[in-house]
Design goal:
- The structure is a single chain.
- This protein is an alpha/beta fold and 143 residues long.
- The protein has a single domain (4-129), classed as P-loop containing nucleotide triphosphate hydrolases (Rossmann fold, 3-Layer(aba) Sandwich), CATH 3.40.50.
- It contains six helices and four strands.
- It has helices at 19-31, 35-42, 60-73, 91-94, 97-108, 121-129, and strands at residues 4-7, 12-18, 47-51, 78-81.
- The chain has a four-stranded mixed beta sheet.
- The chain is globular and about 55 Å long.
- The chain starts with a strand and ends in a 14-residue tail after the last helix.
């Protein structure tokens, strides 16, 4: 089950899920013939936040259920997606040019795209901690 967030002041209900976990949930629902029920439950959220699309490689069947979700949300509810891949490399995600183009088309229509070309927070945090040798990196001390 994906976690959800509720803002009591605005009655705004949203769901946040790592893409790989959401895809597995969708695929299981499809296999159990419960995909329409899951899509209906997800339609109650004003926004779906899907984290790290493209980070974990999925097979065609897994990406088909994600495409079904995106198609169901198109012009019905907000979808926020994070990805380290530019759209030009999304064929790696959806496995074929037509599905990729259709998915991107649905996502970018009526959307705001934020492209952040920033260094990784985790990498910066790791670099900051290299001065503190905890057995995981090189020590700054000399012998």
């Amino acid at each position: 089950m994906t976690p959800y967030f509720h803002d009591p002041l605005s009655s705004f209900l949203s769901s946040f899920a790592a893409c790989n976990l959401l895809v597995q949930e969708l695929l299981i629902a499809k296999q159990e013939l419960k995909l329409p029920r899951l899509l209906k439950r997800l339609s109650k959220y004003a926004a779906l936040i899907i984290d790290d699309i493209g980070y974990v490689q999925h097979n065609r069947q897994e990406m088909e259920v994600l495409f079904v979700l995106l198609s169901e949300r198109y012009e019905r509810g907000s979808v926020m997606i994070t990805s380290n891949l530019p759209f030009s490399k999304w064929e790696r995600i959806f496995k074929d040019p037509m599905t990729t183009a259709a998915a991107i088309d649905r996502l970018v229509h009526h959307s705001i795209i934020l492209e952040l070309n920033l260094s990784s927070y985790r990498l910066e945090h790791s670099k900051a901690n290299t001065g503190h040798n905890n057995g995981l990196g090189q020590s700054n001390s000399t012998k």
